[in-house]
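Readers of this paper often ask what the protein records in our data store actually look like. Below, we set out a record of this kind in full and without editing:
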Amino acid sequence: MSNEVDDIEVAMVTMTFDTTDMETLLGVLSKYVVISRSQDGCRNIDLGASTTVEGRFMIVQKWESIEAQQAHFDSPAMIEMAESCRGILSKAPTIDLIEPITVHDLN
């Protein structure tokens, strides 16, 4: 599941989180995004809040390769974020590996 863009393989991931404790979850996810953006192979990570489902947040990630994305999922930043989500989510997060059809970076 990868796409060649400018001779670079791209992996995309979405993660969706639902909570009733929005302030706590927003703090956890914001820290995760800032730390993860500096990891090897990260092209971009964005955090957004749903305007249609209260308490829902989504992270969208782009990685230079599947290998970089998989290494990140075993990283201390990912583990810390997952552990920090214990007890504050209203259901299990949804994580999806996306095959990019069009990819553009605003660098």
Summary: The first helix runs from residue 22 to 36. Residues 1-7 have pLDDT under 50 and may be disordered. DSSP finds three helices and five strands in the chain.
